[in-house]
C-alpha cells in the first residue's frame, strides 16, 4: 500500500502544475470576498477537501471494478489495453492536434458545470465542499492517468489510497494559488496543457510494460495471477 501512496502522491505533485493552469482560474474566481479571513480559509479548505473526496470515491469505484478484473485473471490484458487507449489519446493530441471527444462525456461535463454554477450562486461556505466534489468530476487528462492506474491496481484499498494521495498531492500548489492569489498567464497555461499528452504517453507506455510481465522492478513487475480457489476440507 505504501507504494500506491507514494506513486499517487508523486503523480499529484506532478499534476499540480497542470491543476494550477487549468483549474486555477476557477479557484481564484471563488466568491469568498464576503467572508472573513478565517471564513475564506474554511471555504477554500472545504473546496479542496471536496476534490480529494471525489478522487477517493473514484478510486473506490474503479478499484472495485479493477478488483473484479484481477479475480478474473485479466489484469495483464487490462493493463495493456489501458496503455493502448492512452497512447491513442496522446496520438490525437500530438498528430491530430485535438483531444478525443465523446458526446456522452461532453453531456456529462455540461451537467457537472450546471451543478457547479448552482453551488457558486449560493455562495455559502457549506456549498464549497459540494463545489469541490463536482469540480473533481470534470474531465482532465491527469485524472485519466490516475484513474487508469487505480483501475489496474488490483486492490480496492490500493486504488483508494492512490487516488486520495493523488488529490492530496495537488493541494500544495492549489493552496498556494488561492492563498497568494497569483494568476498564471495564458501562455504558461498553454504550456501546461501541451505537457499533458507527454504524461499520457509515458503512462500508456508504463501500463503496457506493466502488463507484459517483464520482471523489471517498479516498471514491469511480475503481476500476481488471480487468487486461487479456496481449499475445502472435509
Note the topology:
Blueprint: H1 2-22, H2 24-28, H3 37-71, H4 75-94, H5 103-122, H6 126-135, H7 141-151, H8 156-169, H9 171-180, H10 186-211
Descriptive keywords:
globular; 234 residues; mainly alpha
Task: Describe this structure as you would to a colleague.
The radius of gyration is 19 Å and the shape is globular. With 234 residues, the protein is mainly α. 34% of the residues are buried. It has one domain (2-211). 74% of the residues lie in helices and 0% in strands. Helix 4 (75-94) packs antiparallel against helix 10 (186-211). It has helices at residues 2-22, 24-28, 37-71, 75-94, 103-122, 126-135, 141-151, 156-169, 171-180, 186-211. The chain has ten helices and no strands.
